[in-house]
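Whiteboard transcription, Tuesday session. T.W. wrote the structure tokens on the left side:
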């Protein structure tokens, strides 16, 4: 007889015991797993000639023991590492249909799946907008791991993200907003999800989604006193290169006094963040915002930051425009910045050539 080596000897023993229980329920029901293997060879020799109750003999192939869909295989008796390994194998091989079927069997038999694998599946399906698959995982966790299910806020954040990625932003944000109201302990986490969805919506130029986001971020700010999603949304629209996004940022600022206060307190950090991205235009627009809402102290401080940035890049035209702006508005720059500008001009004259500028058309409007 040909001997077949299986990847999991324990699985082979379990399969042998299941085989005996099926064919000889009276004689072998109470045989320990260790003793079941002792009669394996004898049974295997006569398997071709044995037919009990008009049933076909059991297939002893490796595929039989690796086939979780086989009705004679009891997954509930598998070691936890084998269950997780089977799921990861199906995931790696992109066998989505088989993977979902495996989860359905685990659901029916209440077989526990590793938490790390569950999170991996949730993240993958939500990012790809697979709402039905996320629902399957939610249903499984609710039945098999109810405490874990409640601890994670019923995994509504994954469902919301899946809906948004699928293109249904209104429904997705509605789910996330309801979860925000229901699970107060998870609100910090839900803010992060809002930020991720906002970034994806603005960068992917989804005009319809932007209108929906505006509705929810304003409601969170006005009714729940949570301005973080609103600030994130404004920040992404403000530094965008698209005129429609910039107009939306202006509308948000006009409609929210709380947003104006946040911008006043975070003016320096916001300006530095866009200058690190070499976004001079956003910095210039920010100066116009500060001037419009009469935040003169912040305006003067941002001018200093922008002037230092222009000096570092040896942008003569930009520095000259800032100096003109300061003179017109009565804003003074530190003496050391004036000295640095004079030194740069002298060096430029000694070099006998024009210093290249990164922003030839830079101009402040006031």
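and on the right, the sequence the group agreed on:
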């Amino acid at each position: 007889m040909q001997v077949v080596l299986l990847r999991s000897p324990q699985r082979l023993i379990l399969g042998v015991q299941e085989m005996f229980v099926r064919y000889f329920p009276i004689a072998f029901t109470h045989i320990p797993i260790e003793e079941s293997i002792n009669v394996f060879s004898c049974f295997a020799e006569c398997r071709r000639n044995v037919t009990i109750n008009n049933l076909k003999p059991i297939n002893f192939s490796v595929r039989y023991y690796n086939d979780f869909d086989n009705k004679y295989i009891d997954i509930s008796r598998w070691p936890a590492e084998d269950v997780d390994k089977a799921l990861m194998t199906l995931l790696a091989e992109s066998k989505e249909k088989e993977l979902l079927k495996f989860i359905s069997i685990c659901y029916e038999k209440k077989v526990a799946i590793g938490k790390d694998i569950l999170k991996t599946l949730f993240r993958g399906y939500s990012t790809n907008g697979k709402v039905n698959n996320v629902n399957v995982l939610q249903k499984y966790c609710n039945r098999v791991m109810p405490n874990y299910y409640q601890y994670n806020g019923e995994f509504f954040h994954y469902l919301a993200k899946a809906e948004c990625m699928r293109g249904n932003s209104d429904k997705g944000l509605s789910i996330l907003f309801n979860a925000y109201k229901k699970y107060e302990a998870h609100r910090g986490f839900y803010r992060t999800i809002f930020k991720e969805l906002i970034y994806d919506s603005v960068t992917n130029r989804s005009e319809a989604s932007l209108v929906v986001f505006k509705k929810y971020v304003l409601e969170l700010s006005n009714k729940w006193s949570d301005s973080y999603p609103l600030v994130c949304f404004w920040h992404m629209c403000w530094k965008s290169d698209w005129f429609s996004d910039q107009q939306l940022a202006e509308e948000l600022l006009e409609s929210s006094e709380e947003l104006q206060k946040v911008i006043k307190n975070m003016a320096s950090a916001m300006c530095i963040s866009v200058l690190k991205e070499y976004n001079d235009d956003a910095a210039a627009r920010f100066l116009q915002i500060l001037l419009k809402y009469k935040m003169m102290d912040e305006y003067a401080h941002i001018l200093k930051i922008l002037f230092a940035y222009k000096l570092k890049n040896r942008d003569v035209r930009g520095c000259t425009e800032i100096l003109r702006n300061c003179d017109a508005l009565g804003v003074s720059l530190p003496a050391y910045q004036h000295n640095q500008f004079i030194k740069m001009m002298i060096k430029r004259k000694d070099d006998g050539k024009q210093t290249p500028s990164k922003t030839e058309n830079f101009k402040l409007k006031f």
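Someone added at the bottom: Residues 43 and 50 are 9 Å apart (CA to CA).
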